[in-house]
């Protein structure tokens, strides 16, 4: 065993935290391990280290962690880096022990939950509700890894966090945990991953790309342990993934709708992208559940409503709102038909309700962050789709190196090609009012997982926008169910 990759069990600080909620009142005692390097030759140890939180007791009753799942919770928002040293080396700062939340945006769904949805969730969880403290209270070991990202710049102006650095670092963290199986707390064969937005995409990628040999040279370069980096299950909140098809998916959904300034995007280009997405769906040849048939650009919206959205609306209207609240909500949203028990609506009406947020070419465009994911040491950003490349140069092409990087950053690639190390258990959670990417992205991914025989679920939180990770009870229940039965 490499001396630089040894976990030291007695180097921790003992801490306590009180968890309060309508149906929860307990004191959690836990061990806190900070800034543990997870690779032997880090490019920058401030980023390539992890914090570990180990439950000890709840209300004085000792926690048995001998078979506890290990939850890796990444904070890689917007494909940017996570520097644990710069973030005061903790994930639980702030008043009342609540972790910082990333639910940015106005309360009407453009990046945040609607007021009504937020109120209903408060009744359940007394928001803000720390999902990671809750995980500790349920006997789960929590790991928060730092990682490099697209924003990392050396003093000489060169970059050190471009693709595939972030996923390489997450894999190195998994390998470190497994490398220390005799001393690391919990069951290192029951590793789960969670993330939100770009972090949700990275969680999906970590789950899908387990043990893929194409990362080996990158892992060797940073001195990662020679272990498996496959995991048991993965949780993806609002994942901004399938980047090489995201612009096309966005125009398929939002192309005919004006942006917030009331103007339409270039309809010729929008239709071109929508046609590219239609071709992509034909290539995937996905089969809808319950005998629905092959999913196409023409029926996908209807399918998303029928199989995912209606049940979400029904839960909200029947369970989260009282009769008067429901009547008021339906008056304000006449596009929803209600028969007293079940909701009904068209995908176009839902899309109009959400509203277009991003401009055409919002993923692989000159103004976008995603383009900078695929830069290199000397170039900040490079186009990664043929359409994007042609917008700056009619003869523009995607560089061969970038084509390979796109594969290494897209979980769809690994699921489609039946990567042997792909995890078998998937939990996807998306806000029904999220305008940051097309709803087809998660729905198509979920359908692909189903077609491949995976244990997978996709849940929409009704009227929530982006970063809708307010499902801690459901998420932790799912982890334990898989850990015990999977």
Précis, in short:
Helix content is 35%, strand content 16%. The chain contains 16 helices and 14 strands.
Architecture overview:
With 486 residues, this protein is of the alpha/beta class. The chain is built from 16 helices and 14 strands. It has helices at 115-125, 131-137, 165-179, 198-208, 216-221, 246-254, 267-284, 300-320, 323-332, 347-354, 370-373, 386-392, 400-408, 411-416, 439-451, 472-485; strands at 13-21, 24-37, 49-58, 61-62, 70-73, 141-145, 191-196, 233-237, 287-288, 293-294, 337-338, 343-344, 425-431, 455-461. The strands form 3 sheets. Strands 1, 2, 3, 4, 5, 6, 7, 8, 13 and 14 form a 10-stranded mixed β-sheet that branches. It has a two-stranded antiparallel ribbon with strand order 9-10. Helix 6 packs across helix 7. The longest helix is centred in the middle third of the chain and has 21 residues, at 300-320. The radius of gyration is 22 Å and the shape is globular. It starts with 12 loop residues before the first strand and ends with a helix. Mean pLDDT is 90; it is low at 89-128.
Topology (SSEs and partners):
Layout lengths: L12 E9 L2 E14 L11 E10 L2 E2 L7 E4 L41 H11 L5 H7 L3 E5 L19 H15 L11 E6 L1 H11 L7 H6 L11 E5 L8 H9 L12 H18 L2 E2 L4 E2 L5 H21 L2 H10 L4 E2 L4 E2 L2 H8 L15 H4 L12 H7 L7 H9 L2 H6 L8 E7 L7 H13 L3 E7 L10 H14 L1
Parallel strand pairs: 5-6, 5-7, 7-8, 8-13, 13-14
Antiparallel strand pairs: 1-2, 2-3, 3-4, 3-6, 9-10, 11-12
């Amino acid at each position: 065993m490499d001396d630089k990759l040894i976990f030291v069990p007695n180097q921790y600080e003992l801490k306590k935290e009180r968890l309060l909620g309508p149906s929860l009142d307990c004191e959690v005692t836990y061990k806190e391990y900070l800034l543990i390097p997870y690779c032997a030759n880090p490019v920058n140890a401030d980023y390539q280290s992890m914090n570990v939180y180990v439950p000890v007791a709840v209300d004085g009753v000792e926690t048995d962690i001998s078979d506890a799942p290990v939850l890796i919770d990444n904070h890689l928002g917007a494909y940017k880096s996570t520097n644990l040293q710069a973030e005061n080396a903790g994930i639980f700062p702030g008043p009342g022990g609540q972790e910082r939340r990333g639910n940015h945006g106005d309360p009407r769904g453009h990046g945040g939950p609607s007021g009504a949805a937020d109120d209903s969730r408060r009744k359940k969880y007394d928001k803000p509700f720390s999902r990671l403290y809750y995980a500790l209270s349920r006997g789960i070991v929590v790991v928060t890894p730092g990682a490099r990202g697209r924003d990392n710049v050396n003093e000489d102006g060169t970059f050190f966090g471009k693709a595939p650095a972030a996923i390489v670092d997450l894999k190195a963290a998994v390998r470190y945990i497994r490398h220390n199986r005799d001393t690391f707390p919990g069951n290192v064969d029951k590793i789960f991953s969670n993330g939100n937005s770009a972090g949700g995409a990275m969680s999906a990628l970590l789950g899908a790309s387990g043990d893929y040999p194409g990362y080996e040279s990158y892992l060797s370069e940073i001195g990662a342990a020679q272990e498996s980096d496959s995991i048991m299950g993965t949780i993806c909140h609002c994942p901004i993934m399938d980047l090489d098809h995201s612009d096309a998916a966005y125009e398929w959904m939002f192309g005919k709708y004006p942006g917030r300034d009331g103007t339409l995007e270039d309809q010729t280009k929008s239709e071109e992208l929508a046609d590219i997405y239609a071709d992509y769906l034909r290539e995937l040849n996905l089969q809808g559940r319950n005998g629905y048939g092959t999913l196409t650009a023409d029926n996908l919206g209807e399918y998303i409503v029928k199989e995912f959205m209606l049940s979400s609306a029904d839960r909200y209207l029947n369970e989260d709102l009282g009769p008067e609240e429901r009547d008021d909500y339906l008056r304000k949203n006449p596009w929803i038909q209600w028969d007293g028990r079940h909701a009904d609506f068209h995908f176009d009406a839902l899309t109009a309700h959400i509203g277009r947020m991003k401009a055409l070419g919002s993923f692989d465009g000159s103004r976008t962050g995603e383009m900078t994911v695929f830069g290199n040491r000397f170039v900040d950003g490079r186009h990664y789709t043929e359409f994007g490349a042609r917008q700056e140069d009619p003869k523009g092409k995607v560089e061969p190196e970038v084509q390979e990087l796109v594969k290494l950053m897209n979980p769809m690639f690994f699921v489609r090609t039946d990567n042997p190390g792909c995890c078998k258990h998937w939990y996807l959670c998306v806000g029904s009012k999220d305008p940051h990417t097309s709803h087809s992205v998660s729905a198509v991914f979920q359908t692909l997982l189903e077609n491949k025989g995976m244990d997978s679920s996709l849940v929409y939180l009704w009227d929530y926008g982006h970063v809708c990770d307010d499902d801690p009870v459901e998420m932790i229940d799912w982890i334990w169910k898989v850990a015990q039965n999977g």
